[in-house]
Amino acid sequence: MNDRPGHSPTGGHHPPPSPARRRPLATVLGITCAIMIAEIAGALLSGSLALLADAGHVLTDVAGLSLALVAAVLAARPATAAYTWGYQRAEVLAGAAQAAVLLTVGGLILIEAVRRLVAPPGVVTGPMILFGAVGLVGNAVAAAVLFRSGDRNLNTRAATLEVLNDALGSVAVLVAAGVIALTGWTRADGIASLLIGLLILPRTWRLLRESVDVLLEATPKGIDLAAVRAHIRELPGVRAVHDLHASTVASDLPVLTAHVVVDDCCFRAGQLPRLLDQLQDCLAGHFDVRHSTFQFEPAGHADHEGSSHA
Question: pTM of the full predicted structure?
Answer without folding.
Answer: 0.68
